[in-house]
Specification:
The protein is built from nine helices and nine strands. Helix 1 packs antiparallel against helix 9, helix 3 packs across helix 9 and helix 8 (187-194) packs antiparallel against helix 9. 32% of the residues lie in helices and 17% in strands. By secondary structure, it is α+β, with helices and mostly antiparallel strands. It folds into two domains: 3-152, NADH Oxidase, CATH 3.40.109.10; 165-280, NADH Oxidase.
């Protein structure tokens, strides 16, 4: 098993924290991480801010704007991006890179796109008029014993369940499931996408591999009944950015060289939206 898949498997949504202060050297590493991963594959720049609410006296942030879902966390990372094409995909890509890097440090995180007070966090990061605040994550040491809310959300969201391989990955068209033996050297790379986090664990990504070529087309299959937007934030497009990130990182680790291109196949997939294509050099 590759190192990146081990990190992906290790990452869990942590909603209950010890409240323990992080060491200065850890804070410095976090600062480096949020500055390092700030440009997505489609060129949008992400502005991450590390916020410490411990010493802040804010009447409108009790606890910090998460409706009681997050317990014991003082540190949060909030990200902003200019509202532009593929901004959500780039945001998801970059923030997942940040989250995986924090996981490597032994820190807990939790993707939050809908269950936080955007206004409160927007003020803290001085959100500009042309920017969106798609998501935040708490950062800290996870508490061994989860809160009741944490346990309930994990069960309700089906966090430990994943769709089957044949529901997500296909060969040439959407009617032919990709068999694992046909994935070749890309088996672990594709599996890294299946293991990715997504809003309410809906896993909206679909990949179609071209036969006899290492070309992979990424599509978004929106979940019926799931909100397409929260304001201007397209949550499932963020999920697609996470999928692109996992594929990219795993491919690089496996020594595969490729690039993201716009190469929509000439097929009519009415229930899915084309996002991008990864093509090996």
């Amino acid at each position: 098993m590759s190192f990146i898949i081990k990190v992906i498997r290790k990452r869990k949504s942590v909603r209950t924290y010890t409240g323990e202060d992080l060491k200065e050297e850890t804070l410095l590493k976090i600062g480096e991480i949020v500055k390092s991963f700030n440009r997505g594959p489609f060129g949008n720049e992400i502005r991450f801010s590390l916020l410490d609410f411990k010493d802040m006296k804010k009447d409108d942030i009790k606890p910090p704007g998460t409706y009681g879902i997050i317990r014991g966390a003082n540190l949060f990372i909030a990200g902003a991006v200019v509202d532009s094409p593929k901004a959500m995909e780039d945001f998801g890509y970059c923030m997942e890179r940040v989250i995986l890097a924090l996981t490597e440090l032994g820190l807990g995180t939790c993707w939050m796109a809908g269950t936080f007070q955007r206004g409160a966090f927007a003020r803290e990061i001085n959100l500009a008029e042309n920017e969106l605040l798609p998501a935040i994550t708490p950062v800290g040491y996870n508490k061994d014993k989860r809160s009741f809310v944490d346990r309930s959300l994990r069960v309700l969201g089906g966090s430990d369940n994943r769709k089957k391989w044949e529901e997500l990955f296909f060969l040439n068209d959407i009617n032919t499931p990709l068999q694992k033996q046909d994935a070749g050297d890309y088996l672990d790379i594709i599996e890294s996408v299946r293991l990715g986090p997504s809003a309410s664990n809906r896993q909206p990504w679909r990949i179609i591999k071209e036969n006899n070529q290492n070309v992979f087309h990424f599509y978004l299959k929106r979940t019926k009944g799931y909100p397409a937007k929260i304001g201007k934030v397209k949550v499932q497009n963020i999920d697609m950015g996470i999928a692109l990130c996992h594929f990219d990182l795993a491919a690089a680790e496996m020594g595969k060289q490729g690039k993201w291109i716009n190469n929509k196949p000439a097929v009519d997939l009415r229930e899915m939206e084309y996002i991008a294509t990864w093509s090996e050099y």
